[in-house]
Amino acid sequence: MKKFQQASKELRRNHRIRITPIRLIDENENQVGIVETRDAIARALEVGLDLVEVSPSARPPVCRIMDYGKYKYALAKKERKSKAHRHEIELKEVRIKTPKIDDHDLMIKVNHAREFLERGDRVQFSLRFRGRELAHIDEGRDVFNKIIEALSDISKVDQSHRFEGRRLTMLLLPNPESSRKKTPKPETAATKETPAPQAVPAEKTPAAEASGETPAE
User: Fold this and answer.
1) Domain 91-180 falls in which CATH fold?
2) Which of 1, 41, 50, 70 is the most exposed place for a label (fewest CB within 10 A)?
3) What is the pLDDT of residues 136-152, one digit of tens each?
4) In what order do the strands lie in the sheet with 167-174?
């Protein structure tokens, strides 16, 4: 089936097509040629279909006899399917309440961030300092360094250790290339070279021993 350029707005059809003549494609996708618009409409109605202006910018415009309702349904279905496979990049925030977070809780935060990064989203970590914790900003930087190391296989740092008010923030971007790096395969027994077998010297045959002859060298 031939594909026509799809207009974003509603296509003109039947008696809404006012330009004449038009270039007609019939219900069997045959090129009919240039005909009067009223004749093309009559032909479409005769077979229970619509005359649809599929290429209004052409001269003369191209019109096709089709089931317009079925065409719109197929177009909407294709658009929904395309939208389902398209992921819009979002900015996700992972909040850490204290620089004294233990390793277990930190790994939970890291795993959440990994899920976002694997989907292609950006992740902003924010760590809030309260009261006397402001005297230990270095502890917050250490926490962020642990996060960077834990996610180094799938992310890269876009904005590192930025202090805003009482918050330390950091922005990570997904880095698919880092996960594609191949590590050398371990050498297996099958791939190791085996030494060539050494030649075994020929033994004297009983006949040679009886005659006192020795094999020629």
Assistant:
1) Translation Initiation Factor IF3 (3.30.110)
2) 1
3) 788 888 999 999 999 99
4) 91-96, 122-128, 167-174, 155-164
